[in-house]
Amino acid sequence: MAEALRAGGNPSSVHASGRRARAIVDKARREVATLAGAEPSEIVFTSGGTEANNLALSGAGRRRVLISAVEHDSVRRAVPQAEVLPVDGEGVLDLAALERALAASAEPVVVSVMLANNETGVLQPIAEVVRLARRAGALVHCDAVQGAGKVPVGLRDLGVDYLSLSAHKIGGPTGVGALVVRKGAPLTAALCGGGQESNRRAGTENVAGISGFGAAAVLAAPGQDLAALRDGLELSLVQIVPAARAFGAGARRLSNTSCVPMPGVPAETQVLALDLAGVCISAGAACSSGKVQRSPVLEAMGVPAADADCAVRISLGWNSGSADIERLIAAWQNLYIRVRQSDIFHTDSRARAA
Ligand code: PLP
């Protein structure tokens, strides 16, 4: 990325500086295509996963859209008119509901189901979704932003038409991502201007960001299994707080994600206490204002609001080790002991009981 920034240049310029920038973008395109099991020409660079999701859903050209109830805001808000399909108590899509919705109308439809949930890590049955969708002639979009680097995200292996990726979820820079568009799948550009990205996304490319995305894609091949570490962590948390079973634990999940409640203790309190101990975790669905909103994902899973408000998301990274886990457990336990002795817990427990 530093080299790309130093080199400068606009990939659309024909002079030497432009050609160097073009070569950087082309290399990254091949690298991201390899991660996505796609042709380089099927990669459309975007400003991130949000834009990729918006582009897929507006660009597929289908007015009727079916989404799962646990999609990221960038899917749910991109298509407020979408029909929302329920999930079960573990957060897994109700395939029978999808089948019924597909059969309910002959109108052309696009189905959008994520690969892995950003709050619980729960994996969706994409192969089944594709099988049902194909029978009904539907297009399929998959938000693979959270799955990339942890489970395979091959466009053709998954069998989908559109796949969203985000660089910062695989250790790359923020503000860059891609929509992978299967050759032959329709796509109308959302941003109009120059003819960049083969007329699919106008605007001079973020050359440094794209080169960082490419480098991260090379390093992001799935394979690291953090499940042993994660399972040990979850076991310790349940030993401290018996009600702290991870949401979605009964489903297939990413090996690095736990969404765990500390009943009676607001998620924000947990986040702040662990931050003071040097541990970075998140509360519910992080949103841009830094404020926390109640998680629609947990709500869709039927988790009572009081429990959802006390749930935190713990994500292990490629560099997390047992020392980090021990620090987290100690901080969590300290907080629980302190809070139980304080007013917050009792006030909150009373509110929950009410
Ligand atoms: N989709 C999922 C599942 C995500 O978790 C995120 C980000 O958290 C996004 C989409 C949005 O990606 P970006 O932050 O690159 O816009």
Summarize the structure.
With about 350 residues, the protein is of the alpha/beta class. The chain is about 40% helix and about 15% strand.
Report on this model:
- The protein has 354 residues and is an alpha/beta fold.
- The chain folds into two domains: 2-219, 3-Layer(aba) Sandwich (Aspartate Aminotransferase, domain 2), CATH 3.40.640; 227-353, Aspartate Aminotransferase, domain 1, CATH 3.90.1150.
- The protein has 15 helices and twelve strands.
- The chain has a seven-stranded mixed beta sheet, with helices on both faces.
- Strand 2, helix 4 and strand 3 (83-85) form a beta-alpha-beta unit.
- Helix 2 (16-35) runs parallel beside helix 9.
- It is globular and about 70 Å long.
- It binds pyridoxal-5'-phosphate.
- Pyridoxal-5'-phosphate binds at residues 48-50, 53, 72, 74, 114, 118, 143, 145-146, 166, 168, 177.
